[in-house]
Hints:
Elements: E1 5-11, H1 16-30, E2 36-40, E3 43-50, E4 53-60, E5 65-70, H2 74-81, E6 86-89, H3 101-106, E7 123-126, E8 135-142, E9 147-154, E10 157-164, E11 168-170
Antiparallel strand pairs: 1-5, 1-6, 2-5, 3-4, 7-8, 7-11, 8-9, 9-10
Amino acid sequence: xxxxxxxxxxxxxxxxxxxxxxxxxxxxxxxxxxxxxxxxxxxxxxxxxxxxxxxxxxxxxxxxxxxxxxxxxxxxxxxxxxxxxxxxxxxxxxxxxxxxxxxxxxxxxxxxxxxxxxxxxxxxxxxxxxxxxxxxxxxxxxxxxxxxxxxxxxxxxxxxxxxxxxxxxxxx
Length: 172
């Protein structure tokens, strides 16, 4: 079986989530779980301060684009290409080009799998990176991005921080 790679589908702006939902429904209906593994709309956290109130929201990183991890063949190409709202794949002509390792890393998508010896609710210690020597409780695990969200005390307040699995260790 061929290896699944990440491809970028171009969509009408504002239709990214509808396209994602449509592709996921088609995967289930046509039993393509083996060929189309994941569909993502890349998001980033944006902090806005308005009237002295700090608000965190999520914004689309690439409006008009959806990432699809799939084995490229005639069936998968047809399903994604003919989904309502999709205008085509990114690549020359009608030939989709998969993302490179460097492009995937910059999006926070890791190809190597780091196993986590902790779970939600566990206390962990950060052993590398900006938050080194910080201790926090895991509130969320994202196995796709291979990150854990922990709460740390910052300026007297609990603040959620996303940490790579590789930067933490479980405390016993």
